[in-house]
């Protein structure tokens, strides 16, 4: 985890002063990020984004399709489990971030895989002396 003491935001007048870049620094490192904004149906949305921790990419994403018409949105994420990697934890939260349910892709097998990954991670950290 990177803790940030100072953060600097760069906004763009062309997209109603939305944040297009940010930089942060602190005792544990630096963080940078960029957003590419697009406008559809009179609404701005972050079409692309990327976050870096030092020189390491932390997160990168792109929105290929979006709708601001609620009637065009699906009622549920039926295909979510077909799109995520095996052993991914799926947590359902209420509006106050209280956990409603938790499961892993792959059921019991997914949970076992998750534990194996955690053990491998601990072993690797121990071998590296961290």
| Number of separate structural domains | 2
Number of strands: 7
| End-to-end separation | 14 Å
Largest sheet: 5 strands, antiparallel
Number of helices, counting only DSSP H or I runs of 4 residues or more = 2
* Overall average pLDDT: 85
Overall geometry comes to flat
- What is the N-to-C succession of helices and strands? EEEEEHEEH
- Backbone structural class: alpha+beta
How much is the radius of gyration in Å? 19 Å
Strand content: 35-45%
Which regions contain 5 or more consecutive residues with pLDDT less than 50?
none
Main sheet strand line-up: 1-2-3-4-5
Helix content: 10-25%
Structure characterization notes:
The protein is an alpha+beta fold and 130 residues long. The chain folds into two domains: 1-71, no CATH class; 74-130, no CATH class. Helices cover 19% and strands 44% of the residues. It contains two helices and seven strands. It has helices at residues 80-83, 107-127, and strands at residues 6-12, 18-26, 29-40, 43-53, 56-62, 89-93, 99-104. The strands form two sheets. The chain has a five-stranded antiparallel sheet with strand order 1-2-3-4-5, with no helix packed on it. It has a two-stranded antiparallel sheet with strand order 6-7. The protein is flat, with a radius of gyration of 19 Å.
């Amino acid at each position: 985890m990177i803790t940030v003491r100072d953060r600097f935001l760069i906004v763009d007048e062309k997209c109603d002063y939305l944040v297009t870049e940010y930089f942060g620094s602190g005792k544990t490192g630096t963080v940078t990020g960029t957003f590419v904004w697009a406008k559809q149906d009179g609404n701005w949305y972050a079409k692309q984004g990327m976050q870096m921790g030092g020189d390491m990419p932390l997160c990168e994403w792109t929105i290929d399709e979006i709708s601001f018409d609620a009637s065009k949105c699906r009622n549920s994420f039926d295909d979510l489990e077909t799109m995520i990697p095996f052993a991914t934890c799926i947590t359902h939260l209420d509006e106050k971030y209280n956990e409603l349910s938790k499961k892993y892709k792959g059921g019991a097998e997914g949970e076992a895989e998750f534990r194996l990954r955690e053990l491998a991670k601990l072993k690797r950290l121990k071998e590296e002396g961290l």
